[in-house]
Amino acid sequence: MITLGVRSTTNMKIHANVSAWKMAGIGVDNIDIDACSANGVVVMNTPFGNAITTAEHAIAMMFSLARQIPAADQTTQAGMWEKSRFMGTELTGKTLGIIGCGQLSQMLGEAANRQGMSVAFLCLDEIPVVQGLGPIFEASELEAFLKVCDAVTVERESIDDAILQRVRDTVGLAPRYEALVVLRERDTQKAMLDSLKIPTSPWFCASNTQELLSGMAAAPQSALRCKRTLGGYDGGGQWRVTSPEDCADIPKDGFPVIAEAEIAIAVSYTHLTLPTICSV
Questions:
Q1: Cα dist from 100 to 84, 139, 179, 280, whole Å
Q2: What's the pTM?
Q3: pLDDT 10s digits, 171-195
Q4: Could you report the per-residue pLDDT of 90-122, keeping only the tens digit for each?
Q5: C-alpha–C-alpha distance, residues 71 and 245, integer Å
Q6: What is the spatial distance between Cα 97 and Cα 150, in angstroms, rounded to a whole number?
Q7: Looking at the chain, which terminus has fewer C-beta neighbours within 10 angstroms, N or C?
Protein backbone atom coordinates (compact mmCIF):
# COMPACT_ATOMS: atom_id res chain seq x y z
CA MET A 1 0.00 0.00 0.00
CA ILE A 2 1.31 3.46 -0.89
CA THR A 3 0.01 6.72 0.58
CA LEU A 4 1.09 9.96 -1.10
CA GLY A 5 1.27 13.41 0.43
CA VAL A 6 0.23 16.08 -2.07
CA ARG A 7 0.81 19.83 -2.00
CA SER A 8 -1.70 22.28 -3.51
CA THR A 9 0.44 22.83 -6.63
CA THR A 10 1.02 19.14 -7.36
CA ASN A 11 -0.72 16.98 -9.96
CA MET A 12 -0.19 13.22 -10.02
CA LYS A 13 -1.43 10.40 -12.22
CA ILE A 14 -3.28 7.50 -10.60
CA HIS A 15 -1.20 4.35 -10.20
CA ALA A 16 -2.57 0.92 -9.38
CA ASN A 17 -0.47 0.63 -6.20
CA VAL A 18 -1.65 3.95 -4.74
CA SER A 19 -4.38 3.47 -2.15
CA ALA A 20 -4.62 6.94 -0.61
CA TRP A 21 -3.72 10.54 -1.39
CA LYS A 22 -3.28 12.90 1.51
CA MET A 23 -3.61 16.60 0.77
CA ALA A 24 -1.18 18.79 2.74
CA GLY A 25 -3.71 21.59 3.06
CA ILE A 26 -7.43 22.33 3.01
CA GLY A 27 -8.48 22.31 -0.63
CA VAL A 28 -8.62 19.27 -2.92
CA ASP A 29 -9.44 21.20 -6.11
CA ASN A 30 -6.34 19.89 -7.87
CA ILE A 31 -7.26 16.21 -7.33
CA ASP A 32 -9.70 14.39 -9.61
CA ILE A 33 -12.04 13.05 -6.93
CA ASP A 34 -14.20 11.11 -9.40
CA ALA A 35 -11.20 9.33 -10.92
CA CYS A 36 -9.85 8.48 -7.47
CA SER A 37 -13.21 7.09 -6.36
CA ALA A 38 -13.49 5.01 -9.51
CA ASN A 39 -10.07 3.50 -8.76
CA GLY A 40 -10.66 2.93 -5.05
CA VAL A 41 -8.22 5.65 -3.98
CA VAL A 42 -9.07 7.48 -0.75
CA VAL A 43 -8.50 11.28 -0.78
CA MET A 44 -7.85 13.02 2.53
CA ASN A 45 -7.09 16.63 3.47
CA THR A 46 -5.49 18.18 6.56
CA PRO A 47 -7.57 21.29 7.34
CA PHE A 48 -5.97 21.90 10.75
CA GLY A 49 -2.54 20.46 10.01
CA ASN A 50 -0.36 23.57 10.22
CA ALA A 51 -2.73 26.13 11.76
CA ILE A 52 -1.12 26.08 15.22
CA THR A 53 2.38 26.18 13.74
CA THR A 54 1.42 29.16 11.57
CA ALA A 55 -0.10 31.00 14.54
CA GLU A 56 2.95 30.39 16.71
CA HIS A 57 5.23 31.54 13.90
CA ALA A 58 3.25 34.78 13.70
CA ILE A 59 3.68 35.25 17.47
CA ALA A 60 7.43 34.61 17.09
CA MET A 61 7.66 37.30 14.41
CA MET A 62 5.75 39.74 16.65
CA PHE A 63 8.19 39.20 19.49
CA SER A 64 11.05 39.69 17.04
CA LEU A 65 9.61 43.03 15.90
CA ALA A 66 8.71 44.17 19.43
CA ARG A 67 12.26 43.49 20.66
CA GLN A 68 13.81 44.84 17.42
CA ILE A 69 15.81 41.63 17.08
CA PRO A 70 16.62 41.87 13.33
CA ALA A 71 18.10 45.37 13.62
CA ALA A 72 19.90 44.55 16.87
CA ASP A 73 21.36 41.42 15.29
CA GLN A 74 22.68 43.38 12.31
CA THR A 75 24.43 45.99 14.45
CA THR A 76 25.86 43.35 16.79
CA GLN A 77 27.20 41.39 13.82
CA ALA A 78 28.81 44.64 12.68
CA GLY A 79 30.70 44.86 15.98
CA MET A 80 28.47 47.39 17.77
CA TRP A 81 26.70 47.03 21.12
CA GLU A 82 23.80 49.52 21.08
CA LYS A 83 21.81 48.41 24.13
CA SER A 84 20.06 51.73 24.69
CA ARG A 85 18.91 51.91 21.07
CA PHE A 86 17.05 48.61 21.20
CA MET A 87 15.03 48.68 24.39
CA GLY A 88 12.01 47.09 22.70
CA THR A 89 8.40 46.84 23.88
CA GLU A 90 6.74 44.32 26.17
CA LEU A 91 3.76 42.55 24.62
CA THR A 92 2.24 41.22 27.83
CA GLY A 93 -0.86 43.24 28.65
CA LYS A 94 -1.08 44.71 25.14
CA THR A 95 -4.05 44.23 22.78
CA LEU A 96 -3.41 42.59 19.45
CA GLY A 97 -5.88 43.43 16.69
CA ILE A 98 -6.49 40.62 14.22
CA ILE A 99 -8.14 41.32 10.86
CA GLY A 100 -10.04 38.17 10.06
CA CYS A 101 -12.20 35.79 12.09
CA GLY A 102 -11.35 32.40 10.59
CA GLN A 103 -9.43 29.39 11.79
CA LEU A 104 -5.98 31.01 11.67
CA SER A 105 -7.31 34.02 13.56
CA GLN A 106 -8.68 31.67 16.19
CA MET A 107 -5.34 29.89 16.62
CA LEU A 108 -3.46 33.19 16.69
CA GLY A 109 -5.87 34.61 19.27
CA GLU A 110 -5.41 31.57 21.50
CA ALA A 111 -1.62 31.78 21.17
CA ALA A 112 -1.67 35.50 21.99
CA ASN A 113 -3.87 34.88 25.04
CA ARG A 114 -1.35 32.32 26.30
CA GLN A 115 1.34 35.03 26.12
CA GLY A 116 -0.69 37.38 28.31
CA MET A 117 -2.04 39.49 25.45
CA SER A 118 -5.62 40.53 24.83
CA VAL A 119 -7.05 40.22 21.34
CA ALA A 120 -9.72 42.00 19.30
CA PHE A 121 -11.03 40.91 15.91
CA LEU A 122 -12.24 42.78 12.85
CA CYS A 123 -14.80 40.66 10.97
CA LEU A 124 -15.19 41.62 7.32
CA ASP A 125 -17.41 39.14 5.51
CA GLU A 126 -16.61 35.74 7.01
CA ILE A 127 -18.51 33.70 9.59
CA PRO A 128 -16.53 34.21 12.82
CA VAL A 129 -15.15 31.20 14.68
CA VAL A 130 -13.33 33.25 17.32
CA GLN A 131 -16.14 33.74 19.83
CA GLY A 132 -14.95 33.94 23.41
CA LEU A 133 -11.39 35.03 22.64
CA GLY A 134 -12.02 38.77 22.52
CA PRO A 135 -14.38 41.42 21.18
CA ILE A 136 -15.47 41.10 17.55
CA PHE A 137 -15.96 44.30 15.52
CA GLU A 138 -17.78 44.58 12.20
CA ALA A 139 -16.18 46.34 9.23
CA SER A 140 -18.35 49.41 9.91
CA GLU A 141 -16.75 49.59 13.38
CA LEU A 142 -13.18 49.98 12.11
CA GLU A 143 -12.45 53.11 14.16
CA ALA A 144 -13.69 51.50 17.38
CA PHE A 145 -11.57 48.43 16.60
CA LEU A 146 -8.44 50.54 16.10
CA LYS A 147 -8.96 52.41 19.38
CA VAL A 148 -8.58 49.24 21.45
CA CYS A 149 -5.54 47.88 19.54
CA ASP A 150 -1.84 48.37 20.26
CA ALA A 151 -0.83 46.54 17.06
CA VAL A 152 -2.69 44.94 14.18
CA THR A 153 -1.95 41.91 12.04
CA VAL A 154 -3.71 40.36 9.06
CA GLU A 155 -4.94 36.77 8.93
CA ARG A 156 -7.02 36.76 5.76
CA GLU A 157 -6.85 37.67 2.07
CA SER A 158 -8.43 40.37 -0.07
CA ILE A 159 -8.59 43.25 2.40
CA ASP A 160 -9.67 46.61 1.03
CA ASP A 161 -6.84 49.12 0.57
CA ALA A 162 -8.70 51.78 2.56
CA ILE A 163 -8.75 49.53 5.63
CA LEU A 164 -5.06 48.67 5.36
CA GLN A 165 -4.09 52.32 4.93
CA ARG A 166 -6.19 53.39 7.89
CA VAL A 167 -4.60 50.74 10.09
CA ARG A 168 -1.14 51.78 8.92
CA ASP A 169 -1.78 55.45 9.64
CA THR A 170 -3.27 54.94 13.13
CA VAL A 171 -1.99 51.88 14.98
CA GLY A 172 0.63 50.34 12.76
CA LEU A 173 0.50 47.22 10.64
CA ALA A 174 2.57 44.04 10.62
CA PRO A 175 3.53 42.99 7.99
CA ARG A 176 4.02 46.50 6.61
CA TYR A 177 1.40 47.84 4.22
CA GLU A 178 3.91 47.96 1.36
CA ALA A 179 4.77 44.28 1.88
CA LEU A 180 1.11 43.27 2.00
CA VAL A 181 0.41 45.08 -1.27
CA VAL A 182 3.19 43.15 -3.01
CA LEU A 183 2.47 39.77 -1.45
CA ARG A 184 -1.32 39.66 -1.70
CA GLU A 185 -1.36 39.25 -5.50
CA ARG A 186 0.50 36.58 -7.40
CA ASP A 187 1.61 38.77 -10.29
CA THR A 188 3.36 41.24 -7.95
CA GLN A 189 4.80 38.30 -5.99
CA LYS A 190 6.28 36.88 -9.18
CA ALA A 191 7.60 40.26 -10.29
CA MET A 192 9.33 40.67 -6.93
CA LEU A 193 10.94 37.23 -7.19
CA ASP A 194 12.10 38.05 -10.72
CA SER A 195 13.61 41.35 -9.56
CA LEU A 196 15.50 39.47 -6.82
CA LYS A 197 16.68 36.92 -9.40
CA ILE A 198 15.02 34.07 -7.50
CA PRO A 199 14.22 31.34 -10.04
CA THR A 200 10.62 30.18 -10.41
CA SER A 201 8.60 28.44 -13.10
CA PRO A 202 8.29 30.43 -16.33
CA TRP A 203 5.11 32.49 -16.07
CA PHE A 204 2.96 35.17 -17.61
CA CYS A 205 -0.16 37.08 -16.61
CA ALA A 206 -3.37 36.76 -18.64
CA SER A 207 -6.34 39.10 -18.23
CA ASN A 208 -8.68 37.06 -20.42
CA THR A 209 -8.98 33.86 -22.44
CA GLN A 210 -7.43 35.33 -25.57
CA GLU A 211 -4.30 36.45 -23.70
CA LEU A 212 -4.07 33.00 -22.12
CA LEU A 213 -4.26 31.32 -25.52
CA SER A 214 -1.56 33.61 -26.90
CA GLY A 215 0.67 32.89 -23.93
CA MET A 216 0.16 29.15 -24.29
CA ALA A 217 1.54 29.25 -27.81
CA ALA A 218 4.79 30.75 -26.55
CA ALA A 219 5.06 28.76 -23.31
CA PRO A 220 8.05 26.38 -22.95
CA GLN A 221 5.76 23.55 -21.73
CA SER A 222 2.34 22.49 -22.95
CA ALA A 223 0.83 22.21 -19.45
CA LEU A 224 0.13 25.36 -17.46
CA ARG A 225 -1.06 25.86 -13.90
CA CYS A 226 -3.36 28.90 -13.89
CA LYS A 227 -4.09 30.66 -10.60
CA ARG A 228 -6.13 33.70 -9.71
CA THR A 229 -3.85 36.66 -9.09
CA LEU A 230 -5.77 37.42 -5.90
CA GLY A 231 -6.90 34.69 -3.50
CA GLY A 232 -7.43 31.07 -4.37
CA TYR A 233 -4.88 29.48 -2.06
CA ASP A 234 -5.04 25.87 -0.76
CA GLY A 235 -6.01 24.57 -4.19
CA GLY A 236 -8.99 26.85 -4.81
CA GLY A 237 -9.07 29.21 -7.78
CA GLN A 238 -6.58 27.08 -9.73
CA TRP A 239 -6.92 25.34 -13.07
CA ARG A 240 -4.65 23.02 -15.02
CA VAL A 241 -4.62 23.92 -18.72
CA THR A 242 -3.13 21.57 -21.29
CA SER A 243 -5.12 22.55 -24.39
CA PRO A 244 -7.13 25.50 -25.72
CA GLU A 245 -10.31 23.63 -24.74
CA ASP A 246 -9.24 23.67 -21.08
CA CYS A 247 -9.39 27.47 -21.07
CA ALA A 248 -13.17 27.20 -21.02
CA ASP A 249 -12.90 25.81 -17.48
CA ILE A 250 -11.78 29.20 -16.20
CA PRO A 251 -14.80 31.46 -15.55
CA LYS A 252 -14.70 35.09 -16.62
CA ASP A 253 -14.47 36.21 -13.00
CA GLY A 254 -11.45 33.90 -12.60
CA PHE A 255 -9.30 36.33 -14.57
CA PRO A 256 -6.72 37.75 -14.34
CA VAL A 257 -4.62 34.65 -13.79
CA ILE A 258 -0.96 33.82 -13.41
CA ALA A 259 -0.10 31.01 -15.84
CA GLU A 260 2.92 29.00 -14.70
CA ALA A 261 4.68 26.36 -16.77
CA GLU A 262 4.63 22.99 -15.04
CA ILE A 263 7.91 21.27 -14.30
CA ALA A 264 8.10 17.46 -14.55
CA ILE A 265 9.97 15.73 -11.72
CA ALA A 266 10.46 11.99 -11.32
CA VAL A 267 9.69 10.99 -7.72
CA SER A 268 10.66 7.50 -6.57
CA TYR A 269 8.64 5.62 -3.94
CA THR A 270 10.58 2.41 -3.13
CA HIS A 271 10.30 0.38 -6.34
CA LEU A 272 7.65 2.64 -7.87
CA THR A 273 8.43 5.72 -9.94
CA LEU A 274 5.53 8.12 -10.52
CA PRO A 275 5.51 11.03 -12.96
CA THR A 276 4.91 14.10 -10.82
CA ILE A 277 3.97 17.51 -12.13
CA CYS A 278 4.42 20.60 -10.01
CA SER A 279 4.78 24.34 -10.37
CA VAL A 280 6.92 26.54 -8.16
A1: 36, 10, 18, 27
A2: 0.69
A3: 987 678 888 888 888 899 999 999 9
A4: 999 999 999 999 888 999 999 999 999 999 999
A5: 52
A6: 7
A7: N
